[in-house]
Amino acid sequence: MTFLEEVKRRRTFAIISHPDAGKTTLTEKLLLYGGAIHLAGSVKSRKTQKYAVSDWMEIEKQRGISVTSSVLQFDYDGCRVNILDTPGHQDFSEDTYRTLMAADSAVMLIDVAKGVEAQTKKLFAVCKERGIPIFTFVNKIDHFGRNPFDLMEEIENSLGIRAVPMNWPVGINGEYQGIYDRETHTVDLFAKDETHGQQKLASTKESVDDPAFRELLGDEVHQSLIDDIELLDVAGDEFDFDRVRAGELTPMFFGSAMTNFGVKPFLEKFLDLAPSPAPRQALEKTVDASSEDFSAFVFKIQANMNPNHHDRIVFMRICSGKFEKGMSVLHRQSGKTIRLAQPQQFLATERTIIDEAYPGDIIGVFDAGTMGVGDTLCAANHKVTFGDFPVFPPEFFARVSPKDTMKRKQFQKGMTQLAQEGAVQIFEQPHSLDSFIVGAVGMLQFEVLQYRLRNEYGVEPITDSLPYSVARWVKGNVDIKQLKGLDNAMAVKDNRGRTVILISNEWQMGWVIERNPDVTFLETPPLN
Ligand code: GDP
């Protein structure tokens, strides 16, 4: 296969959903159809739903599993499919946002009975902002749920995107018997599932006009299907990939991951429609996936997966060029040349050393601490730099210091590495060497930080909450001493030495902004 053919057959996507919509189940079923596992259920559920640190520790115990499933890869119909795994817990949504940076498309999973939920909305917004095409899978249609037309309307009203059904459930709500394919005008009737979804579901395809089929469904159900289709044809949107790409339209599918109902039709159509690796904007130029010069960016880091070895794995998404084992690349941020030895690929059940990989693929390499999230790697003669990752404004702050000052070194190392991983954001207060100011998006992040400092770095931390909830980056070179109205605020530096003001609430911040009309305050760090 040529390099271009390899690029064209890649499909790299993430599934976004509210917890419990069925993401784990659907992922398993896609693997089942992809032949990556023979009996669904062998991929252990690794999600956590309750808001407690014990859940995180549970993940920690099972890290082998959560790590091996950073990306799930299989071949189907000539496509090389990469499913990016995202954590289920809300408090790790920052992780999910970063993972979305590595996706070329997203599948938005919706529970037929619950419709668009809070977490779905947030993740949808990130995809839309990044221009990632979104496909919709309405799950759990084996249950009674909302009417499909109502769901289309809800998607439009709450997400501002029109839905174009690619297929349509056939039968009575709660007892659907099959899926109508709008392109081929055929119905996939599903055989009763005797295995509770453990094996692929048999189905028979019929033309919707077949009299035998009409008899099978009964006149009433058949007529209501014909009416629905007519309404969609007349009043619905036409499929238009440019509109999908522009975030105006989402192709919509129906099914039930648990019973396998509609999973195969979805997979096949999705792979047909989903984009292959898209061009990426670098600071210097647009990088085309078909370019043979290597480039990649780091979107995730996991340190200490094996606490005895203090290993650190950096996950990168390849944007252009072919990756070959042992190749040397330039790390843009440090200017160092790095040899990508022992590249790992993380498949459903095992990690394997890989020899080559292509744009769209994800590889993990060991790194001693040079690389951080968002960093670029590229061929030495093809210098590009992908922009900084978006940083989410922290809302919780604490001062963290080591209980035992003799352990200052381990403490600093731990804090720096965990910040590089993106577990928390760290700030430094001038003249205070023994402590860091830590910012988090959710409280659970502090607990995880404490747990990891203790267990992975052997440092007992002291954490004092700070009464701030708002952070603002100061644009440009401004002398802090000249700023007015900071009596109840704290000025700190972020990891790049940029000044950040921490203050108790928006109202107080408004007051500071008013008193310093010549200064610009930003909600997120200025991108480079
Ligand atoms: P996640 O939190 O999004 O990963 O959700 P899971 O895949 O763990 O599913 C949450 C619950 O919904 C589990 O109890 C699943 O068995 C159930 N579930 C998933 N898919 C379906 C489906 O198609 N139909 C029904 N009835 N239940 C489902």
UniProtKB/TrEMBL annotation:
<comment type="function">
    <text>Increases the formation of ribosomal termination complexes and stimulates activities of RF-1 and RF-2. It binds guanine nucleotides and has strong preference for UGA stop codons. It may interact directly with the ribosome. The stimulation of RF-1 and RF-2 is significantly reduced by GTP and GDP, but not by GMP.</text>
</comment>
<feature type="binding site">
    <location>
        <begin position="17"/>
        <end position="24"/>
    </location>
    <ligand>
        <name>GTP</name>
    </ligand>
</feature>
<dbReference type="InterPro" id="IPR027417">
    <property type="entry name" value="P-loop_NTPase"/>
</dbReference>
<dbReference type="InterPro" id="IPR000795">
    <property type="entry name" value="T_Tr_GTP-bd_dom"/>
</dbReference>
<dbReference type="Pfam" id="PF00009">
    <property type="entry name" value="GTP_EFTU"/>
</dbReference>
<feature type="domain" description="Tr-type G">
    <location>
        <begin position="8"/>
        <end position="278"/>
    </location>
</feature>
<dbReference type="InterPro" id="IPR031157">
    <property type="entry name" value="G_TR_CS"/>
</dbReference>
<comment type="similarity">
    <text>Belongs to the TRAFAC class translation factor GTPase superfamily. Classic translation factor GTPase family. PrfC subfamily.</text>
</comment>
<dbReference type="Pfam" id="PF16658">
    <property type="entry name" value="RF3_C"/>
</dbReference>
<dbReference type="GO" id="GO:0005525">
    <property type="term" value="F:GTP binding"/>
</dbReference>
<keyword id="KW-0547">Nucleotide-binding</keyword>
<keyword id="KW-0342">GTP-binding</keyword>
<dbReference type="InterPro" id="IPR038467">
    <property type="entry name" value="RF3_dom_3_sf"/>
</dbReference>
<protein>
    <recommendedName>
        <fullName>Peptide chain release factor 3</fullName>
    </recommendedName>
</protein>
<keyword id="KW-0648">Protein biosynthesis</keyword>
<keyword id="KW-0963">Cytoplasm</keyword>
<dbReference type="Pfam" id="PF22042">
    <property type="entry name" value="EF-G_D2"/>
</dbReference>
<dbReference type="InterPro" id="IPR009000">
    <property type="entry name" value="Transl_B-barrel_sf"/>
</dbReference>
<dbReference type="GO" id="GO:0016149">
    <property type="term" value="F:translation release factor activity, codon specific"/>
</dbReference>
<dbReference type="InterPro" id="IPR053905">
    <property type="entry name" value="EF-G-like_DII"/>
</dbReference>
<dbReference type="InterPro" id="IPR005225">
    <property type="entry name" value="Small_GTP-bd"/>
</dbReference>
<dbReference type="GO" id="GO:0005829">
    <property type="term" value="C:cytosol"/>
</dbReference>
<dbReference type="InterPro" id="IPR032090">
    <property type="entry name" value="RF3_C"/>
</dbReference>
<dbReference type="GO" id="GO:0003924">
    <property type="term" value="F:GTPase activity"/>
</dbReference>
<dbReference type="GO" id="GO:0006449">
    <property type="term" value="P:regulation of translational termination"/>
</dbReference>
<dbReference type="InterPro" id="IPR041732">
    <property type="entry name" value="RF3_GTP-bd"/>
</dbReference>
<dbReference type="GO" id="GO:0016150">
    <property type="term" value="F:translation release factor activity, codon nonspecific"/>
</dbReference>
<dbReference type="InterPro" id="IPR004548">
    <property type="entry name" value="PrfC"/>
</dbReference>
<feature type="binding site">
    <location>
        <begin position="85"/>
        <end position="89"/>
    </location>
    <ligand>
        <name>GTP</name>
    </ligand>
</feature>
<dbReference type="InterPro" id="IPR035647">
    <property type="entry name" value="EFG_III/V"/>
</dbReference>
